[in-house]
Amino acid sequence: TSLWAKTGYGSDSIIGVLDTGLCYSPGFFQDKDMSRAPRRWRGICEAGQYFKSYTCNRKVIGARFFLRNARRVQTYLDVNYSLAASDVILSPIDTDGHGTHCASTVGGRQVHKTGLASGMAVGGAPLSRLAIYKVCWGRCNYADILDAFVAAIGDGVDVISMSLGSSLKDDAGSRGGLLAFQRGIPVIAAAGNRGPDGYLSNASPWLLTVGACTLDRDFVVEMELWDDEQ
After folding, report:
1. Where do the structural domains in the chain lie, given as residue ranges?
2. Residue 161, pLDDT score
3. What biological process terms from GO does the record include (predicted)?
4. pLDDT of 32
């Protein structure tokens, strides 16, 4: 709490989120009492299927999607790279849920009395601005991720959050992260997206890599079955 107060709850910092897009939530992503986007912001809100330009607000100040290179791979290079029709929605809309989850984790605003735990759900920087870069469509294409890094840098983000992992031979996060690092933009990356066995991705020294551990709490859920048993 004291760190939040010292940093103004992330006020006016612009976080670029590279993931599967965003599904707007009136709780985590509402812009009540927030001012206009900082003048240094140069990004856009790219409209498309199920995602109108007015989906962006003073909290979610930008959204873009990147699919050109994924389609090129599917068409010309790798017959095993298959994009399901349900994955190809040409907009920043999140059809997976992962990107929305990550965006709320890094920058979601306070939401009270929700979920299984009592208290408040809130992101790490609740007064920050979010810029969404959709780079994953079932799978995440190397070149699309690099394109998103270049776009985020040009748009004027202050920090990039990337909960994606890849092999060392095609590590777009490492290469894109280096571009950002050279321009003074820190990149926060997940140590991995699998489990429960420990492993590591995003290990380049210019990335700030964050891991996870087990939780020392249990959440008990009551289920009512068809025969009224619990």
Report:
1. 2-210
2. 97
3. proteolysis
4. 93
Sequence length of the chain is: 230
Per-residue pLDDT at 180 exceeds 90: yes
- Whole-model pTM: value is 0.87
Architecture of domain 2-210: 3-Layer(aba) Sandwich (3.40)
Residue 169 pLDDT exceeds 60? no
Position 90 scores a pLDDT of 86
First to last CA, the chain: 39
Higher pLDDT, 185 or 228: 185
- For the chain, the three-class secondary structure string (H helix, E strand, C coil) is CHHHHHCHHHCCCEEEEEECCECCCCCCCCCCCCCCCCCCCCCCECCECCECHHHCCCCEEEEEECCHHHHHHHHHHCCCCCCCCCCCCCCCECCCCHHHHHHHHHHCCCEECCCCCCCEECCCCCCCEEEEEECEECEECHHHHHHHHHHHHHHCCCEEEECCCCCHHHCHHHHHHHHHHHCCCCEEEECCCCCCCCCCCCCCCCCEEECCCCCCCCCCCCCCCCCCCC
Do the beta carbons of residue 124 and residue 107 sit within 8 Å? yes
d(CA 62, CA 65): 11
Kindly tell me the sign of the dihedral angle through the C-alpha atoms of 94, 96, 101, 103: negative
Instruction: Note if the bond before 196 is cis, omega within 30 degrees.
Output: yes
